[in-house]
Amino acid sequence: MNVMERQKFVVGLLVQQNRATVAELAQATGASEMTIRRDLEVLESRGALRRVRGGAVSSLPGGVEPPYAVRAMSGAQAKERLARAVVDLLTEGETVALDTGTTAVAVAKAMAGRQFTVAPLSLHAAFALSGHSGIQLVMPGGQVRPEELSFYGHAPVQTFKDLCFDTFVLGCCGIDPVQGATAYNLDDVQVKRAAVAAAQRVVLVATADKIGRTALGRICSMEEIALVVTDAPADSPAVEALRELGVEVVHPANG
């Protein structure tokens, strides 16, 4: 692993299991313990973790969304596979509302070379889409959250009341058979709800760690979601529970 790959691995592991020792990280990455300690020092300075004796722990309290920069470092390859699977579900020429978040940015990048009309809910996704001749951008506008660069407030909600979309590609912080799709930030929830109402179908894309989780704000019920694209194991209880509700679950191809 190079430096970036190694640091992404460390952040991703701590997101999953909260704590790891220097020895465990060295063995998993093939790096020396001294190198791992330097990585931990750098990552701590970015707010991605907290160093403790012999290792590191996640710096994030429960019920709090990790910062965008931390999420962007975690699971990049998995998000790229999910993104390709999502774009394969879209028809050329569709009108698409595209959610906020790092997985949505991966979807934006996967749209390159295709023809869509896209309303991105964040500037991160808009930047990824800009410059591609086949993409027509529709900007929802509104106030912008720092770092996340997502639109919020009256303007984007009103935009989605005035427009109709073929598909809303929805990201979330948690998806649960009972609670549906949820997110931490309540301003984001209001915009996501408006996008759900504006779309003929909702395609939810979620990494495995989101399945079976709930966050503070409820976006929509499972009945409002046509498809779930996830890399969670097909035989996991949470995925089976979604299927029992009649939700179609799509898994990305490997590679």
Automatic annotation (TrEMBL):
Which SMART domains did the record assign? DeoRC (SM01134), HTH_DEOR (SM00420)
Question: Which keywords fit this entry according to its UniProt record?
Answer: DNA-binding, Repressor, Transcription, Transcription regulation
Per UniProt, what is one GO molecular function of this protein?
DNA binding
Purpose of the protein:
Repressor of the lactose catabolism operon. Galactose-6-phosphate is the inducer.
Q: Domain HTH deoR-type spans what residues?
A: 3-58
Q: What is this protein called?
A: Lactose phosphotransferase system repressor
Q: Does the keyword Repeat apply?
A: no
Alphabetical list of PROSITE patterns matching this protein: HTH_DEOR_1, HTH_DEOR_2
Q: Which Pfam families does the record match to this protein?
A: DeoRC (PF00455), HTH_DeoR (PF08220)
Q: Which InterPro entries match?
A: Carb_Metab_HTH_regulators (IPR050313), DeoR-like_C (IPR014036), DeoR_HTH (IPR001034), NagB/RpiA_transferase-like (IPR037171), Tscrpt_reg_HTH_DeoR_CS (IPR018356), WH-like_DNA-bd_sf (IPR036388), WH_DNA-bd_sf (IPR036390)
* UniProt key word Transcription regulation: yes
